[in-house]
Amino acid sequence: MIFDTHAHYDDRQFDSDRNELLNSMQDNGVGAIVNVSAAYESCEHIVHMAQKYPFMYAAVGIHPDEVGSLDEEKFARMKELFKNDKVVAVGEIGLDYYWDNESHELQKEWFIRQLDLARELNLPVNIHSRDAAQDTMEVIKEYGRGLDGIVHCYSYSKEMAKEYVKMGYYIGVGGVVTFKNGKRLKETVETVPLTSIVLETDCPYLAPEPYRGKRNNSSYIKYVAEEIAKQKDVSYEEVVRQTEENAKKLYRL
Ligand code: NI
Predict the structure, then answer these.
(1) What is the distance in A from the centroid of ligand 1 to the CA of 202?
(2) Ligand 1: distance of its center to the CA of 96 in Å?
C-alpha cells in the first residue's frame, strides 16, 4: 500500500473534513502516513493525531522558517514528546534560504542541534532544504553521517542526489514530478535507484497533476507513483511496493 512519508494534516485547510478524509485513506490504498511538524506549536498536536489514527505516525522537529521561536525551555519540552512510541523521526529540520525567515547562522545552529538529537535518540531525520543546496550538503556531511533520513521534496541536481544516496539517505518525491516544469526531478528519479526513493505529499501543498494548485492529500500519491513508474519503466505496483518497503525500513516499522 502507499506510504506517505511526509504530510501536514494538522494544517487548517483540513479543519472542515480531517476525520472523514483520514478515515477514507485505507479504502484509497494508503497504508501509512507520517505527519510532520513544522512549528513548535504543532508538535504536540501532531503526536495526539498519531495516537488517534492507527496508520499515522509522527515526526517531531522545528522547520528552519520557525527556529526563531525556539529557546532552551521549548527545546527541552519538545524532546519529551519523543517518549511517545508513535514518534518515528526528527523533522522537518534543515535550511530554507528561499523564504530566509531567520539568519543562516541561526538556521544552521538548530539544524545541527536537531541532527545531534536524532543521533542521541537513534531516529531517522526528515530534511527540508530549499535554495540551500551547498550548505545543507556541508552540514549533512559533517553532522549527519551515519544517520538515516529523507531529503524531503528533493529539488536539487541528480548528481547531488547520488551523493545523498551514497550516504544512505532517501530521496523524497512528491507532486512536483508530475509537473510540466518538473524535468529536473524526473531526471533525478531516472538516476536514483528505486530502492532509494520514497513517496510523499507534503499535503496540503504541492498536489500532483491533474490537481495542481488544489489541496493535496495522500490518496493523490497514486499520480506520483504512476509518473515514477513511467520514468523508471517499471510497473505502478512495483513502485508502490518498493517505496513502501523503503519507508518501513527507514522509519523502522
Ligand atoms: Ni513539509
Answers:
(1) 5
(2) 12
Ligand 1 centroid – CA 199 distance (Å): 13
Query: Distance, CA 51 to ligand 1 centroid (Å)?
Result: 20
Fold of the domain spanning 2-251: TIM Barrel (3.20.20)
Q: DSSP character for 82? A: G
Structural domain boundaries in the chain = 2-251
Q: Is pLDDT of 87 > 90?
A: yes
Instruction: Give residue 38's pLDDT band: very low, low, confident or very high (50, 70, 90).
Output: confident
93 touches 63 (CB < 8 A) = yes
For residue 98, give every residue at least 6 positions away whose Cβ sits within 8 Å of its Cβ, in sequence order, or none.
Answer: 130, 131
Residue 102, sorted as left (phi over 0), alpha (psi -120 to 50) or beta, turns out to be: beta
CA of 38 to the centre of ligand 1 (A): 7
